[in-house]
Amino acid sequence: MQFWCAATNEPWNWQWKAYVGVWLFLVLLVAGVMAWNRLAARRAGEVPPPLHPLFLVGVLVLWLSLDFPMGPLGASYLASVHMLQFLLIGLVAPSLLLRGLSPAAQAMAARSPVLVKLTNPFPALLFFNVTVLVTHLPFVADALMPTQLGSMLIDVAWLVAGLCFWWPVILPTPARAKFPPPVRMLYLIGGLMFSPIMFGLAGFLAYSESPMYGFYELAPPIPGLSARDDHQAAGALMSVGGAIVAFIGISVIFFRWSRTEG
Amino acid sequence: MRFFSLTAAVMAAVTVSCARGERADANGGDAPTGFRGVVTTPAREKPDFTLADADGQPFNFRERTAGTVALLFFGYTHCPDVCPLHVANVAAVLKKLPFEAREKIRFVFVTTDPVRDTPARIKEWLGGFDPSFIGLRGSEEEVNRILYTLRMPPIQKAAVPAGTAQYDVGHAAQVLAFGLDGLSRLEYPFGMRQEDWLHDLPKLARGELPSGPQPSGPGSVELAPMNPGDAPEAAVRVAIALVPQPPTTTEGALYLVLRNGAAEDTLVGASSEAARAAEFHETMPGDHARMGHMAPVAEVVLKPGETLQFAPGGRHVMLLDFAERPSIGDAIPVRLRFKRAGEVILAANVVAYADVERLLAAALQTMGQ
Q: Which residues on chain A are in Cβ contact (under 8 Å) with B12?
């Protein structure tokens, strides 16, 4: 039994496998957010609010991306599934998970100077893009992905970077006067929709002469899908997926903004 | 402004890094031989055998591949990992080569599983990768004789219960490359990437041969046949010897994969002209009382037929006080002394530490592990 999904060098099969680390991680995440909300409510003299349903959807997205079958497929066999995991863990799940923080918990977090700096739009954008870049560099991914710890490190790095990236867009605290809705939309356009990092990586994945990642090139093959097709699919997913997530985010911001302005 | 400078720097990094991934050959990633394939000495002569092709017609390997680069691979179509990867990678690379180079290359697949690999099955399977690939089929005895001639391990098949269709077949995992002169000086173990093939195949098609220091001596030369019934008593076979580039001249580790022959032997010493001394060490795990540490090992016993790996985190040969810091791509001469097999001289390739695990795993696959 593996703690976290990582390469086994065995041919792929659909037999269910347990990944205890994933379950433990999700339980700790839910428990951690609940404890944080409760503590913040107690300090503010409020009643702890129930968990936001979107937070639970975020946990579900995270669970689907990390556990069987997407977890092992992405961690051991297919770069395209790995990319889908990146989109879900780094982009989709964080935007939903942040909804789990109550206003009191956000206010408590805003007292931490490190967190305030990390969730400032520009540092957050930079941190997110550097994390995306580093975790997708061939020599980094090829070195980390074969081990459970390395694979977990990449997943956690995506989640943390995604949380920092989405924080200023989704949460009102700490208040940022210079980050109104139009700027937020530009932030998503520059950071996701037309991100030079994501576009660059997607281009290399799709058009490089030979497969970018040795780890996936030499993984036990999935019948009917060549390493080249797999890498091209990964490139397409990265560019299109990022744009779709950004588009949804921009739409939500726009309609909320138009409601308040109207 | 600082943000945009940082973004520009990050973009420059991705460009360099990804370009490096594509053009590793331009960055000194070559072995000193000028090829990415593993040099085998002495060169293997192209075997003269005739088997049936996928249309049931006789195919003489030596005659029909004369004047071409012949890539010879022994595998089976139900293979879950090594075979489809090798075949897919060669097929993908051939599509990228110019017509003149491609026309000079033949890929010949010999099945090690003639029971399930019918001519139709071979044709369909190979055709899925590249219709020009040649599939050959013979009896297990015939194929084992060819393997024996090529100093490669025979087909290894566990007893299969009657009526069972799902079973694995053990086979050599390397592709042999016969040059235009009909000799095979290079082999490509599992772990070779498309960029490696893309680097070597055009050179082979132009008739270029590996150059530079090459291993010699009984360890790497006496690639003993693995069939104890037919073979003379086997010596020690060294599949790979690697030295991750040490950060200083003070010390460096040598990692190996070797297989013992039919009789028990003992590795009693090592030396290298490139270093003042060589010692056997073993990494010992730490416990509550003591931190993890290296412990010297006087000798290493090899059981008959045993495959032994000297790998990071375990046993290794510690090379002390290099005359100069080895560079990636260098070949360091190393002498291993065995009680029974005597002295084995080999050339250890200096590689990046990050490549060690992959290359050792590839060598183990080649040994049929």
A: none
Strand partners, B277: B320
In angstroms, what separates the C-alpha of A221 from chain B's closest C-alpha? 6
Question: Is the CB of A13 inside 8 Å of chain B's CB atoms?
Answer: no
E strands of chain B, at which residues? 38-45, 50-53, 58-60, 69-75, 105-111, 134-137, 156-157, 169-170, 175-178, 183-188, 237-244, 251-259, 265-272, 275-284, 293-297, 300-302, 307-310, 315-322, 331-338, 342-351
- For tokens 């030596």, name the residue: B62
B41-100 residue pLDDT tens: 778 889 999 999 999 999 999 999 999 999 999 999 999 888 999 999 999 999 999 999
* CA–CA gap between residue B209 and residue B183 (Å, rounded): 10
b/e map A44-61, b = 16+ CB within 10 Å: eeeebeebbeebeebbeb
Window 91-150 of A: residues touching B by CB (8 A cutoff) are: 122, 125-126, 129-130, 133, 137-139, 142-143, 146
Which spans in chain A are helix H? 20-44, 53-66, 70-76, 79-86, 93-97, 103-109, 113-118, 121-136, 138-144, 148-170, 181-188, 196-207, 214-217, 227-261
Cis peptide before B215 (omega within 30 of 0): no
Listed by number, the residues of chain A in 161-220 with a beta carbon closer than 8 Å to a beta carbon of chain B are 196-197, 200-201, 204, 208-212, 214, 217-218, 220
Q: How confident is the model over B228-281, as pLDDT tens digits?
A: 444 444 467 777 788 888 888 888 899 988 878 778 888 999 988 889 999 998
* Residue of chain A whose Cα is closest to the Cα of B199: A210
CB of B12 within 8 Å of a chain A CB? The answer is no
Q: Count the neighbouring beta carbons within 10 Å of the beta carbon of residue B268.
A: 15
CB contact under 8 A, B194 and A143: no
